[in-house]
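Q: Could you fold this chain for me?
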Amino acid sequence: MVNLLQSSKRQQIIQGAISVFLEQGYEGTSMDRIAAVAGVSKNTIYNHFQDKKGLFVFLMEQVTTERFERVFGSVSLSGDPAMVLRQIADKLLNTIRTDQDYIAFIRLIIGESGRFPELAQLLVKALPEKVIQTLTNYLDSHPELNLENTEATVRIFIGSLMGYILTQEVLHGKEIIPLEQEVLINSLVKLIIG
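A: Sure. Below is the predicted structure, expressed as structure tokens.
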């Protein structure tokens, strides 16, 4: 019963914190405000999380792990590389583009990265690094592709997808520089597979 109660309080804190961080930014967020929105005492927050940075880091890890699992948990990393890369690209773009909370979270990190570069670095470590390693391992298992530098190829692939999300969604550029998702994916796969 105690663990269930602690889990419930933790969820209240997490939901309140996400709401306040997205509304007020990292620097503008106070633990008092999170406590008020979450409906818990400030001491309860400190019992679960060391400080504001610890809470933010936990949220970032949770959010990025959920997105990684949504993409790589539903795509089989076996079979034809062209098919696998298409599936990963499509799933990644659809997962992120339709998730307005995650888009807002990315905007928050970018907005705060000048004052808090360590937070931006944590985001890079939490998601892109994991994706790069997973895809590098997969493509390394396909020597028939004759990739000169597998990790560089994966970085180009992921960087192009993230650049697309950044320009189309995060920076509201889809009306200014529109590009169909399928055109991007087909072009990327063709560059890698030939």
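A (continued): The mean pLDDT is 90.
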